[in-house]
Amino acid sequence: MRWIVLNTEKSYARYLDQQDVLKKFRNEFYIPNNTIYFDGNSLGLMSRRAEQAVDNAMQSWKEYAINGWTEGEEPWYYLSEKLGALTAPLIGAKAEEVVITGSTTTNLHQLTASFFNPKNNKTKIIADELNFPSDIYALKSQLKLKGLNPDKHLVQVKSSDGNTFTTQEIIDQMSDDIALIVLPGVLYRSGQILDMKTLTNEAHKRGILIGFDLCHSIGSVPHHMSDWGVDFAFWCTYKHLNAGPGSVAGLYVNKRHFGNEPGLAGWFSSSKEKQFDMEHTLTPAADAGAYQIGTPHLLSAAPLLGSLEMFQEASIEQIRKKSLQLTQYLMELVEAELTDYDLKIANPTEDTERGGHVFLVHPEAARICKALKADGVVPDFRTPNGIRLAPVALYNTFEEVWTTVDILKTILKEERYKKYENKRGVIA
Ligand SMILES: *Cc1c(COP(=O)(O)O)cnc(C)c1O
Question: Of 262, 292, 312, at which residue does a domain stop?
Fold first, then answer.
């Protein structure tokens, strides 16, 4: 859906910023000096509220010591569940279906250990060939733990264009021998949103359980996990949720699965009332809390308390609306100004299929990213030829989008990227 008639003047970008209903949130963030930060889908920026929430957690520790578990403003014993309840609206789940715990990868291990029960001929897992490696490594090791050969039992859906999938390509793999499906909600390179509703429906028709990795969609795209009946999901909180490097991740389990033992148990899997009875027989929590393992990482969970407040105030619907406008504006400027330079838009362009970032491909992408950084724009290089640009609704502006395209044009026109090696850094 087109909402603007393109005007390539900088004054138009400023006009769009004036109209922006979320513009006040930018002041809540620490924006690095002289920087256009378009990498919030790798590591979101720090906000004053996140900082304050960590200070508060430190203060509780200082003041209450052991009593901080049950006293103070945010008693630690209940914080993971409270943060889960605050996150639930972002994914369209019930409060008790969500808990903040672990990391993306450890949560995938936990959920696969819990939901992958190979039986009779149903012994395979579907994933996709474009997913982030950590997810694939986790699934392969879970197969091995069940004595199954990943070469035979992990089915990775192939992409015909190397960047995206059609829903049908995925459905075609849902054969009788599939027990479980794990896919991203939004693909980390191309930013494609998968049709989670249809995929869930089709999986369930065939008696297959399905879960989604929401790392790139949470905080950027609305979801309806409960309504769609998705079995489980997991995500990190340091990308669009801005909770800081290594912040505690999250998971969702549909309530129809409540009451089961988690695949990987620990004393925090326990019902809160029973936990300190110290019995050797686990009584699992009656909700998603059962999928926790050990003591929560309080200081890495704290920033999320501050950060989630802003999502509540802004609403995920408004965030999505602005995000779509920013990425559309970026794509239209790229089409108008940059297509002479071998630069191609490789993300889906439709609103229904486009996540929170734009994915450009160019044979010299690694060097172009270095040139952008030298000029104060922080993009994200994805090997071998991809440039991700994520204008984030809570803190980026239309003017920053305009300026980035202007800088990119100079870099391409003057071939300024040739000063740099076409090779990625250790972290890219
Ligand atoms: C960012 C990301 C991860 C990272 O996993 P961690 O356990 O947080 O290091 C995993 N999967 C996907 C799809 C990601 O985008």
Answer: 312
